[in-house]
Each structure stands twice: as structure tokens, then as C-alpha cells.
Design brief:
single chain; about 200 residues; mainly beta; 8 strands
């Protein structure tokens, strides 16, 4: 910290969790994936060329006064089953992401909450040994809730932005593949997407 006697500003910590579980279910496999991260980091700002050349690492005084930092919590969960059912190749999956961000930057304090999720299903089968068709669809949703407040020396000030955004995506797709031998495969794909 400029002008200080050794106090540090720029600490950070990150915790991650990653796990995968696979189980045989019916004529296929069920997979569960869970990921999570927790980040807490102070933001000391950037260094100019003189500080880099001198070997010093001073924190930006304005960043210190504004207590700039970032705190992020995020969780992701995915579930998938792939296998055979009713003489078809089935691949079905669903997922969810939740994210909370508290971010103090010099002019503002940002509070962002994000929730997103989706699902995807595809069905396929072979024709005569060398042809394979696949049909499927998916849907995805995302919602952001964001509040911006003035940064008053690290304390939330007046509300400057109250914003809500939602995005929806739906899609359908098809594939036809031809594999006459081990070293050759031809594919034709089509997909269409709708957004709101």
C-alpha cells in the first residue's frame, strides 16, 4: 500500500470442488457431475512501467480506498443418461448453473445473481448396418439479476442500475451418417435455433 508501513492489499483465496459419479442404469450409464468454486480476491490494480522496472509492487491507492475486490460463488450440476431404450440409442441430459458475484470496482459495487439451466435429448438408430440417423432437441434458459451501486469508500451508495435479463433458447437438430468402411464416414447435419 503506497505510504504504508507494510500492510498488504491483494490477498486472494479459491476453493474448488469437482466430482463425477457414474452408475449402470438399465441398458445404459447414468453420469452425475458436480462442480463448485468459491473465490475471494482483493484487487490492488495494475502496475505502471516504472513500478515494474523498479521491482516494486505497490497497490493502487484509489483501489485501496475503494476496497476493490471480487467475491464469486458458483455451482454447476449436470445429469446424463446414455444407452439403449425401445431399440433406439438414447442420450438425455440436463444441467443447472448458479452464480453469485459481488464485485467492488472503483466507481461501482456490482451485485449479480445468475441462474441458468437446460435439457437435451437425442434419439438414433441404424439402417442397414452403414447408415445412422439421429434426431434431437434442446432448451436452455438463463436469468440475470443485477444491481449496481455507487462505491463510497467500499460501502454501497446510491442505486445506479437495477437490471433483469432473461434469455431462452430452443433448438432442433438432425443428423444422417454413412459409414461404408472403417476409414470413411460421411455426415449431413441440420440444426435450427430459436431465441427469446
Amino acid at each position: 500500500v503506497p505510504g504504508d508501513t507494510g500492510e498488504l492489499f491483494g490477498a486472494s483465496s479459491k476453493t474448488r470442488v469437482n466430482s463425477i459419479l457414474r452408475l449402470p442404469v438399465g441398458a445404459g450409464e447414468l453420469s452425475l457431475v458436480v462442480n463448485g468454486v468459491q473465490l475471494e480476491a482483493e484487487n490492488p490494480g495494475s502496475l505502471n512501467a516504472d513500478a515494474i522496472e523498479s521491482g516494486e509492487r505497490p497497490a493502487n491507492g484509489f483501489n485501496v480506498r475503494q476496497q476493490t475486490d471480487k467475491n464469486v460463488s458458483q455451482a454447476q450440476v449436470g445429469l446424463r443418461w446414455a444407452g439403449r431404450a425401445a431399440a433406439l440409442d438414447v442420450d438425455a441430459a440436463g444441467w443447472y448453473i448458479g452464480r453469485q458475484l459481488d464485485n467492488r470496482i472503483p466507481p461501482s459495487i456490482i451485485d449479480l445473481s445468475r441462474n441458468a439451466g437446460g435439457a437435451r435429448v437425442s434419439l438414433g438408430s441404424g439402417i442397414g448396418g452403414s447408415l445412422m440417423w439421429t434426431l434431437g432437441g434442446q432448451v436452455q434458459l438463463q436469468r440475470d439479476d443485477r444491481l449496481n451501486r455507487a462505491n463510497d469508500a467500499g460501502t454501497p451508495g446510491d442505486l445506479t442500475l437495477d437490471q433483469k435479463e432473461s434469455v431462452t433458447n430452443a433448438a432442433g437438430f438432425a443428423r444422417l451418417s454413412w459409414t461404408p468402411g472403417e476409414r470413411f464416414e460421411a455426415r449431413a447435419d441440420v440444426r435450427t435455433d430459436w431465441y427469446t
